[in-house]
Amino acid sequence: MPTYRTPDVYVEEIPVFPPSVAEVGTAIPAFIGYTEKAARNQAHDLILKPTKIYSLKDYEALFGLPKADTIAISIASTGAAPGGYTVTSFTEPTTSYLLYYAVKMFFDNGGAQCYIVSVGTYQSTPTFTLAGDTGTAPATAYGLQDGLDAVKLEDEPTLIVIPEAVKLSATDYQSLVQAVLLQCGGLRDRFAIFDLHGGGGALTDAELGTQRGYFGTAHLKYGAAYYPFVRTTFNHYIAETEGGGGPASNVSVTVGAGSAVDLVSLKASDTAAYNFVKAELGKYFVVMPPSGAVAGVYAATDSARGVWKAPANASLAGVIEPVVKLDSLKQEGLNVDATTGKSINALRSFAGKGTLVWGARTLAGNDNEWRYIPVRRFFNMVEESIKKSTSWAVFESNDANTWVKVRGMIESYLIDKWREGALAGATPKDALFVKCGLGTTMNAQDILEGRMNVEIGMAVVRPAEFVILKFSHKLQTS
Q1: DSSP string covering 156-212
Q2: Burial per residue of 141-155, b for 16 or more beta-carbon CB atoms within 10 angstroms, e otherwise
Q3: Where are the beta strands (DSSP E) in 243-294?
Q4: How many angstroms separate the CA atoms of 79 and 146, rounded?
Q5: pLDDT-based confidence at 465, cuts 50/70/90?
Q6: CB 33 within 8 A of CB 164
Q7: Do residues 406 and 420 touch, judged by C-beta distance below 8 A?
Q8: pTM of the model
Q9: Which own/partner contact pairs does 78-82 have at CB distance under 8 Å and 24+ positions apart?
Q10: Which of 195, 213, 278, 430 could join 289 via S-S bond, C-beta 3.0 to 4.6 A?
């Protein structure tokens, strides 16, 4: 390299190379919903403040525990043996708030980090709103739309998950999911995981058509829907607080013709009855929309294989079974709808395999380019990674030297992705192209106006959604 002599100092010319493409995270969900608390330094200081956590312990420290829903159980002595009891009545509680369990399912299924956006704290009567103050607790209760607006300002989240959207009215649910798709389509750096509004029960073809209608027609390639809900391995939360004011437990127990007592009082007065009730409560499990678990599958698949691998054919941890059993015939109607073309991904139970995610389609199920989740998410990752990594070129000379550097760094990055199996083609030339230069992507007017256009093409691998085997008889030849 040349050197230049001055009277007092030698100045050596040091070439400056552009940085390589730094890849962004791909499976960092933002969970939006209601929490027991939202406090780091003082009460409510985390309301509507997206907060990054790395474990369920982090969540519990900042946002608390599940809501202790009221459980009432009546038992009677069998008389067959001392301490023998039978259940005379039990009403399984409805889970009031879903966010805690959704985050737990995310970490159980391979999630590593996520954002929590608390839009309010638990209330004695659950209140779910689309947006704005509920009117009951202005300082601590907002709506799910407010949480969505808050996460729009965060750059890192790549997935949006709102499990409590299913608690909204049908009209509000429709408005919210379309707002989520609008944000994803506008920012182009995130993807939405949806639960069907009526996913807790069997849906007819007409009802599925209604569910599809909620998502509208815009930005469908930026979201995917999953059906049905799942029965988890989580028992309903039981609070047992000894001493202090207020109810000692959320479980009310009636023994025979006696008066109802809480679980803590029963433990002190009748240990056998207490043990029987605790054993019975262990037989009932929380039913959840699947989005939290599916987000965990996205994270685990991205870590193990890459964002270009379909997040499907993966077993769900912490899940006993789907609440609705689906077969191949029923799933055909979910894959593609002849009228709207919107796809819904199934969760199915297979003998010896557990509950599997059995679908990898975006809501744009009839779009040949954006039909599959890994294709859309891979483009999201590449677009965001390259956009951030080429920021050094802003205000550089808009000439051939800069164009070569930009083209070289992008090609190098994409060739690495091709070697990892993300792009289809026998050679890099078959798998990708990067164009940048005068006469190819720019004209003289573009240069005068300060624009540097880069054109990138990729042949992304697509999942083998259907494996077709053909069998035939072969006549004996020897």
Answers
A1: S--EEE-GGGGGS-HHHHHHHHHHHHHHHHHHSS-EEEEE-TTTTS---HHHHHHHH
A2: bbbbbbbbbbbbeee
A3: 251-255, 261-262, 285-288
A4: 57
A5: low
A6: yes
A7: no
A8: 0.90
A9: 82/272
A10: 195
Q: Are 266 and 255 in contact (CB under 8 A)?
A: yes
What is the spatial distance between Cα 147 and Cα 129, in angstroms, rounded to a whole number? Answer: 11
Supply the Cα-derived Rg of the chain in whole angstroms: 28
Are 219 and 181 in contact by the 8 Å Cβ rule? The answer is: yes
Residues composing the chain: 478
Report how far residue 450's alpha carbon sits from residue 436's, in angstroms, rounded to the nearest whole number. Answer: 14
Instruction: Give 440's DSSP letter.
Output: T
The residue among 35, 166, 27, 197 whose CA lies nearest residue 100 is 35
Q: Which amino acid is at 55?
A: S
Instruction: Render pLDDT for 373-411 as a digit per residue (tens, 0 to 9).
Output: 999 999 999 999 999 999 999 999 999 999 999 999 999
Which secondary-structure segment (H or E) carries 378? helix 373-389
- Give 263's contacts (C-beta < 8 A, 6+ positions apart): 238, 240, 248, 249, 251, 253, 274, 277, 278
Burial tier of 207 (Cβ tally within 10 Å: 0-12, 13-18, 19+): middle
Q: Mean pLDDT of all residues in the chain?
A: 89
Architecture of domain 29-234+286-375: 3-Layer(aba) Sandwich (3.40)
Listed in sequence order, the residues at least 6 apart from 274 whose beta carbon sits closer than 8 Å to its beta carbon are 263, 266, 267
Q: Tell me, what amino acid is at 378? A: F
